[in-house]
Amino acid sequence: MRFSFFLNLLFFILQYYRFFTQGKSKVTGFETLLGVEAGVYYAEGIVHLVNLEGYFISVSTMKGERVLQFTADSDNAEYAAVLPAGVYVLNAAKGKERSVVKKFVVK
Question: So where are the chain's domains?
């Protein structure tokens, strides 16, 4: 009984040591780079993109139907688009850099 306790304790200590000596863990998640967050909003027939220059943009309905697809040409890009009322999902990808997923509402 004591042996298994000490074995488990040793295993825990080794995992703890490995986590902190190897730097980052393999866990991934949302990250804001340099304090600049990407964004999207829709107003008066225009999709407005913020901080997404060079990203490949795909806009889909909540059902998964792709309604727009293009590459953003500036950090404050505007694209004319007639979208019916609803909730949309923007997926933005740029090579091996981070990918961005945002939801936005069209009223």
Answer: 2-106
Question: How far is 20 from 4, CA to CA, in rounded Å?
Answer: 24
Region 2-106: CATH code: 2.60.40.3080
**What's the residue count for the chain?**
107
| Cα–Cα distance measured from residue 87 to residue 99, given in angstroms and rounded to the nearest whole number | 20
For 16, list phi and psi in degrees, rounded to 5: -60, -45
Which residues, listed in sequence order, are joined to residue 46 by a DSSP beta bridge? 43, 80
CA dist., res. 78 & res. 45, Å (int): 10
Q: Which two tokens stand for residue 34?
A: 């340099």
Gap between the Cα atoms of 11 and 5, Å rounded: 10
* 44-73 pLDDT, tens digit each: 999 999 999 999 999 999 999 999 999 999
Q: Is the pTM of this model over 0.85?
A: no
